[in-house]
Each structure stands twice: as structure tokens, then as C-alpha cells.
Amino acid sequence: MKDKNYRKIGKYWYVEFYRKVDGKLQQVRLSTKKKTKKAAQKVNPEDAKDCTFDKLLEKYKETFQLKKSFRHKLYHFPLYERFRGRLLAEIQPDEIEKFKTDRLNAPVKMGTDKVKEGYRIREKHPKPREARKISTVNRELSTLRHMFSKAEEWNMINSSPFKKIKGLFENENNKRLRFLSEAEEERLLDKCAAFLRNIVLVALNTGMRKGEILSLKWEQIRDGFIYLTKTKTNIPRQIPLNDTMTSLFESLPRHITSDHVFYRQKDGTAYDNVYKSFNTAVREAGIEDFHFHDLRHTFASNLVKAGMSLVAVQQLLGHTDITMTMRYAHLANSYLKDAVRSLDRKKERLTGASDCGNENSRRIDGFGAVENVVSGAVSA
To answer: Which residue, 89, 174, 277, 300, has fewest beta-carbon neighbours within 10 Å?
Structure first.
């Protein structure tokens, strides 16, 4: 870094120099955050050698490893291989955009359906290749953006390259609304293993998320309610038990050493996931395009179709915004019709059903006052 050049861009002075990357010289430009050239010349560009993507990744992991969302970010870090060994100041906005394009165009790994034949499970029927979801790439970009934001906060970089990019994140279609019919519910429960059937029943009768169900403890069930403290939105909520749930919990055996409601028989630990067993039950029940989270949609849909108000459904689901609950509004057509028809019943009470065929009738003015109409004349 012997050959340095100083240039004023805007109100600050920048230092430019060259460094070797994979045997090739690359130009690097760093802001000194100084307003005079004399002050800028006192800044040592050698300090930038520690501001690499590798250093940022290491510090980021140390800082956020205990966060709840960190386990999802672990899948993102290997995708940033192209930035490894690079100075943060070298990474330009167009490289971020290329990363996004490459990820959208990258083929999704193909899998195979597992089919049970007798006592063996064989892999058959290769799954068709699917396009990578926009939501997946948005999550990958979101983690990368957060890393660069922290780098700026930690004075490892002058400005995040994301600040110079407009329209990077694509709009997502998260309005999936798949729910079971009564016939599908019966078929699914019939194909579930005993332990899984109880878990599915809880999902259908409470609308709880999978993680909330698998981590459920007996101490949370009391006084006819399920008390949830650790939720996705970090807002506690209470779910009342119906007769089906009361009977179910009364019938479940408790483990000697574990307080978990649903546990592994061998050691009493909670289930991490029921992905394979649930997908097997769904496939054997002949149900298509159905995920575990759709049981939550089924719960909400059944409530709305039964005439429950959207506000009540919102509270039971734990939605912070009624907009999320409004996706079920179209299912309430019959309920809405009854609500409008209630106005007819109110009008009948006001006008009097017995007066409909008489010469004398009553008229309601715009202010709700009742006026007697006799032979077409309005009495004072």
C-alpha cells in the first residue's frame, strides 16, 4: 500500500490504493471521514486489512449466536462464499445484485418421495425441479444486509453497499390459505400414528404453531386454558380448552422425569420436529399440497365459518395486526349475510309486522324518528 492517492468526494477525503487478490491487483477506495487532506493523510490504510468479510462473519456469529433467529441464519452463511477473503470496502452494490440474481437462478436440489413397501422404505418418484422461492432469497439478502449494517455500526466500513441499491427485495406472495375439509381431516387423523394424532388434534383445536405444541409443558395447562408465554411475536396469549382438548389432556400419560406433554418414550425429551411422520400421514391420506402450518389455517377457517368474529380469531391466533386475520374474511359470507339480515328484523320491530297491510303505516325519517302516515298525509 505504498502508492496512495487522496481524492475529495463530497465533503470527505478518500484514500485509494491497490492490493493483490488472487494474484490480481484491485483498487480499493476508503473514506477517511476527514474534511481536510492533511488530516486524511494521517489515516493509515493498513488498518483496513482487518476489515474483511471473514472478520465480520466471525464477529457476527459471536454476537448473535444466542438469538432465536440465529439457527436460520446458519443456513445462509455458506452462501456468502464469494465474499470471503475480501475487504468490506471492496464489495460493491452490483455484486450484491449479482448474488441475488444467481440465487434466484440457482437450481433447487431435487429430492425423492419415500414410499413404504412392506417393512422397507424405498425412494421413488423423483420430485419435479422447482424454482427457488423469492421469500428464500429475500431471507438470504436480509441476513447479508444486517451483517453490513452491523459492520457500519462497528466502524468496519464507512457505508453499507445496500444503501445504494433500490428495489433489491422482491414482493412476496405469503397469502397461502390451504385448509382441510371435514373429509380430509378424518382421513389425515386416520393415517396418523398415535403420538402424531394427538399433536394434530391440538393443532386443529387450538391453532397453536408447531413449535408451541412440541414445547408445550403441563404447567402451561390449567384452569381450562393453555398459557403461552414464548410465542413468535413475543406476546403472551391464552387459549381456552374445548371439550375435545380437555378429554385429550386428561387421557395423556405423563412422563416420570419430564414435564413435556409430547415426548419421546425413551428419554422424555420433547420432539424436535414431526416433519417426516406428518408428511407420511398426509401422503397416505391422499392429501395434496398440505403443510403442518396449514392446520393453523384450518383452525381459523373453521372458526370463521362457524360465525366467530375476526377479532376473536385474531386474539386466538396471536396476530398483532388484523390484516393477517382478514385473509379468512371471505369465508364468512353466510355469517355476513346473517348480520345484514338482522337489519331487516330490526326494521320489522320498528314498523310493526301487523301494520304492513293496513292503511295506516309508519315511516322512519333520516334521524330515526317515527312518523305516522295516514292516507298519504303526514301528521304533525
So the answer is: 174
